[in-house]
Amino acid sequence: MKTTLVIMAAGIGSRYGGGIKQLAAVGPNGEIIMDYSIHDAIEAGFEKLVFIIRKDIEPDFLAVIGNRIEAMCSKLGVEVAYAFQELENLPEGFRVPEGRKKPWGTGQAVLVCRDLIHEPFAVINADDYYGKDAFRKMHDFLVHNALNAPHELCMAGFILKNTLSENGSVTRGICQVDAQNNLCNVVETRNIVKTATGAAANGQTLDPNTYVSMNMWGMNPEMMDVLDSEFCTFLRDLGEDATTAEYLLPTCIGKLLQEHKVTVKVLPTADQWFGVTYQEDKQLVIDSIGALVADGTYCADLFSDLK
After folding, report:
1. Is 236 exposed, middle or buried (0-12, 13-18, 19+ CB in 10 A)?
2. Complete domains list, the chain, with CATH
């Protein structure tokens, strides 16, 4: 069964402090974090890539990754497509509120590629390193479960303490998971910081061993209709938050869970996350990638082992 990887790369990188953070070189030959996700996805069996970007970053994106990845994927028989996330990408009957500059969020990002996806798919952030295990488990789930249960989703479950930045606060979807690894609830939580005893957010202590969402979701194309309907509801209910509210995947999926409209299987992974949220994160990522090359997890010539 064909599977697609959707890579959300339209983020403006406001906290990175200049430049497009998704395009920061971190590998021994100038590779970016996205390269490692693409490698791991193809190795796991994904046969199509969809990049979600913005028109204004398209030239940089194509120069740094798009053209190069297209050439590599062509040799491997992997399809590549692009979708563009813009403020104006709204359902019929809605328009951008006056004064709105902020992007609509990850829920809208997925919707902009609905015409490109006709198979089970996974969604990831461009600037997060997820590890090989997560891609293998996600692909296996999509192949064996997605079409049999159209409203059964999956999520890569990371351990909170493995996903924190040394250089500032992060946002994570804090998860409640039952004994069968079913997701019971997910709450988008901002301002999570590393502490001497684990983690905290807005003064509240968090269990460092709890599962969190890193926006790595698996679903089937039928979910696009659900996401579209929920986006319309979100837009109708904007009220005073019209210029700042975001339609976020974890929030939407959490709502659907509470309404018993979907189920979500959590796929546990103990892999260490890393990403470039802040400029100071970059050296840690470079060192982490270097260690993975040194121990043989990746070839120095990254894509040379793919056939």
Report:
1. exposed
2. 4-305 (3.90.550.10)
Q: Compute how many other C-beta atoms are within 10 angstroms of the C-beta atom of residue 144.
A: 11
Question: What is the rounded CA–CA span in Å between residue 120 and residue 15?
Answer: 32
Q: Name beta bridge partners: 8.
A: 52, 125
- Nearest by Cα to 31 from 307, 303, 305, 306: 303
SS (H, E, C) 26-44: CCCCCCEHHHHHHHHHHHH
Give residue-wise pLDDT tens across range 224-249: 999 999 999 999 999 889 999 999 99
Residues 6+ apart with CB under 8 A from 298: 36, 39, 289, 292
The helix-helix angle for 132-141 and 33-44 (nearest 10°) equals 40
pTM over 0.90: yes
Lowest mean pLDDT among 186-190, 203-207, 252-256, 263-267: 186-190
